[in-house]
Amino acid sequence: MRSRFRKIFDVKIMLAALVFTSGTFLHGAVALARTAEPAPDIDAWIAEAREMSLPIQAIPQRILLLESKIEDPVPVNFLADATGLEKISPFIFIDAASSTLTAKLNHDSSAKGMKGRKVNLSESTSANVVIAQLSGNSPLLYVNNGEKLRKLGNVKPYKGEKSPDSVLNWLYQVLGYDGVLLARKGSYVLVSGSAAVLRKDGIQALAIRGSESQLALLDKKRSGSSLLEIEVAKGPYAVFRILALAKDSGELPAGVKLTIQRERGKKESE
Amino acid sequence: MRNGDQLQGRNSWVTKFFVFAALFLVPVDAARSAAVKEEDPAKTGPQARRFQDITSVAIEINVAPELSAYHRKGKVGWNKACERLTEVFSAGGGLWDSSPAGSVTCMISGKVSASTGKSAPGDFKITIDIRRSDDTVELGMALPGLDSKKSPLTVSTFRIPLTEWTPQFLADQEFASLVAYRLLDGGPLLGRLDRSRLSSKNNELRVSEYKSQEFKTRKFDSIDPLPTLSLYRLERDQSSGRMFATHLGNAKLIKTEKVKVKTGKGASARTGFVVTARYSVDKKFMANSDGSGLLWIHSGEGPGSRDAKLAAAVNEAHDRLTSAARSGLLDNLFSKGYESISDLLFQTAASGYLGLRYGRQLLTGNKLLEGATMYGLLVEVRSGPLNGLKFYYDSFPKVSYENAGNTTTLQWSRLVLGKSFSFAFPFVINRIEATPKLGRYFLSTTQPVEVDSDGTVLSTQKFEIRNQPSFSVEISAERAARLYTARIWYALDRGIPFLPLIGTSAVSAERAGADLFLNSGLKSEVFGSEYSLNILAFGLYENLTIEDLKLEDLQPGEVAVSAIQLRSAYAGLGLVINW
Question: Three-state secondary structure along A150-218?
Fold first, then answer.
């Protein structure tokens, strides 16, 4: 009884906070909208962002999807060819051919015919996000905490064909967000996300507070720190304009995760 | 909206925010965010773990100071070698259009001797070190910091003998290309994919054996083009130094073509051939290649997969060059190719050893063999058409021992002819040889057949074989240096089914030994060829069994020698002429 009361109370608080916060947002957002400078050139910004250094925990940089257990001596890759996925996402996916070639080029002992040094899976692939046992009912999600892979827990199993769109859609669900903020310039932020989502006109996104050091957001409870609207997109990258910024949201650091509107909202004029 | 288009017709953000916020329920209390907590990135782990695209490569070749003056006076020096090395290490300048470098700098004792292209700050830097190691030249290729200490990682290394002609050899396009190819084969980048070599549909790739064919001057056997190529993008983890490949596809060899070509006009016109390999590029590459960025090439089998073959090719090439140089035929080899001098090399018997040796029996306990001696003639050809030929003649003069009026005797000899197959070896020893041999044995002995309890010989009988065939296989390992050549060997003689039918006896033996050739420093030049005198010290152990296969049934009380077994060990000295 107390628990139910608490839930109802929480929802009321949240709604009240929403109205209160939106008022706060309104004030700031109007100011941002009226003084908005021209959006930075997206191509130049993408090139610039590629040279940036981000903490390993900030953004999925290399993703490894395994059919096998992570402990298996010869891990079996889920993907035969990752290039289709890389065309529609900002991530690097490690496929079987690439990981084999990588092992050979580094003279790892795991490569066929090589008598080089032994390296663990994390080092050999340099993956900071690994999802293992994909053929099972409860795949396991591992992320790199800066030093080694750490198990986070079970995630939703993948079902269906291995088409790039469906794999990417599933992956974003598993990670618990739709995009990552890469950089900010004034009222604009550079975001990486799914090309399929970003190509939609007029979509908005919500930056998730405190998510810059988390590779996966497994909990559904989260709080927003700012509201963004898309300006221009290019493949898996987009420039968003900051519409509203919570007063206590700080600098919007690189690595902040975003929940992006999947469907365009109705126009006021319609 | 298409990618890159400016968004038009922005909606009222107020409306959208409420719709959006309502959809995602935004609790404001950040402290209650129950997302999975991880350590603060500022406090743990590397702060930067970014992957740098390898889009350009710079190679720096360093010739060590101790080598700079090491070349024959008046002949080609290291500056010429540097020029050639920068050429063959430049992108597409090596064998089968190999080499990834956009810029190459060759330095002698720290000073730039030759360079091509311009290096840029973002280049991936590969270092080639050429230094002296005892009496060899060690060539090593290193990549920048592949471990946490950022010390360069040598990924490919091998040695060739150091001679006064070494820089002259390295100034030769064919030899320098072979050397560069072997070094690059051990690294992460064998070549750069030049899109001009791809057909318009991206489905065929052509590579040439040599960038600029020096017509009809082939000095060495061809290195076959790789059967499959991996085509990939490459990144480097800035923090660990590891490289990460994104495999884009494969190319499979379709055929190799030899096309006649003609260059120049009038008196300067030259005709020759260009060898081109045609590859079929797979559908994966055609689907994945978007035409952006540089791609890299390596063997489908990965680095070092053909090292044994390349090592043999480099050693064979070096042997040919050395034998030509010692025979005064190097200029002929460079200008007219190997075929033009092979006959001359044959006439001069190419390089090798000719020697005589003398040894004494070491084992004790056998009165007959105590004091036994041996004389031997040995000939080995180390290059040219008869490369690998070995001929030995060992004679064991008659020894005798008298016991109670009965004399036992032993005298034997053998002729052995073999052909060795050598394989380069990367550590400590330089090469391993396998030598099948055919031999002829001659033996005459009188052996005791009746001995009383105190060892007194009561009667003897003669046992004799003549021209008895044998077949054997010898395995040897050799280390060669300027002052010495050391070799250990083991040989096994075994009867094979048809041999007993040819002879009347079956020879089986096990032999093992060691030879040490010491360079006396005495040299002489005869008809342009250089001969040097070596002192040979040797030791060998032999367990020989000869069985009489034609021994007829004996009558009761009759005694005959059915087999002879000899265990002996000899050590001695010899003189060997090396050319």
Answer: EEEEECCCCCCCCCHHHHHHHHHHHHCCCEEEEEEECCEEEEEECHHHHCCCCCEEEEECCCCCCCCCC
Give the chain B residue whose CA is nearest to the CA of A205. Answer: B20
Helical H runs in B134-226? 166-170, 173-185
Q: What's the structural domain count of chain B?
A: 2
Distance CA B384, CA B195 (A): 41
From A183's Cα to the closest Cα of chain B, the distance in A is 15
Residues B379, B519, single domain; the answer is: yes
Please state which CATH number belongs to domain A62-174.
3.40.50
CA distance A233 to chain B (A): 5
Query: Which chain A residue's Cα is nearest to B290?
Result: A87
Q: How far is B485 from A154, CA to CA, in rounded Å?
A: 65
Residues B553 and B447 occupy one common structural domain? yes
With b meaning 16 or more CB within 10 Å and e meaning fewer, what string describes B466-490?
A: eebbbbbebebbbebeeeebbbbbe
Residues in chain B with CB shorter than 8 Å from the CB of A225 are: 30
List the single residue in B28, B37, B41 with the smallest CB-CB distance to A58: B41
B402/B474 same-domain check: yes
Report the run of H or E that residue B548 belongs to, with start and end.
Answer: strand B529-548
Domain final position from B301, B336, B371: B336
- Backbone phi, psi, residue B223, to 5°: -95, 120
Closest by Cβ to B248, choosing from A42, A83, A199: A83
Q: Is A266 in contact with B3 (Cβ distance < 8 A)?
A: no
B286 and B382 in a single domain? The answer is no
The reply to whether B118 and B76 lie within a common domain is yes
| Contact: A217, B4; criterion CB under 8 Å | no
Strand pairing partners for B394?
A: B376, B414
Q: Is the pLDDT of residue A253 over 80?
A: yes
Q: Which residues contact A23 (CB under 8 A, 6 or more apart)?
A: none
The pLDDT value given to residue B10: 36
| Per-residue pLDDT tens digits for B411-424 | 999 999 999 887 76
Do both B560 and B467 map to the same domain?
yes
**Cβ contact B409:B422 at 8 Å:** no
Examine the domain organization and report whether B381 and B237 are in the same domain: no
A46 chain-B contacts, CB cut-off 8 A: none
- Residue B437 is encoded by which pair of tokens? 């041999």
Mutation target for B interface from A81, A83, A191: give the one with most B CBs within 10 A: A83
Q: B314, B336, B358: which is the final residue of a domain?
A: B336
* pLDDT computed for residue B377 by the predictor: 95
Q: Could you give phi then psi for residue B76, rounded to 5 degrees?
A: -65, 130
Question: CB-CB: which of A83, A206, A211 is closest to B35?
Answer: A211
Query: Which residue from B118, B100, B12 is spatially nearest to B55, judged by alpha carbons?
Result: B100
> CB-based contacts of B497: which residues, under 8 Å, 6+ apart?
none
Low-confidence ranges of chain B (pLDDT < 70): 1-50, 71-74, 145-150, 202, 211-217, 239, 270, 290-293, 327, 337-351, 383-384, 424-427, 481-482, 495-505, 527-530, 549-559
Which chain A residues touch B290 with a CB distance below 8 Å?
87
Domain range for B212: 51-336
Domain positions in chain A are: 2-53+177-260, 62-174
Q: Give residue-wise pLDDT tens across range A145-167.
A: 777 788 999 999 988 888 888 88
Q: Which residue of A has its CA nearest to B12?
A: A268
Q: Both B281 and B372 in a single domain?
A: no
User: What pLDDT sits at residue B236?
Assistant: 83
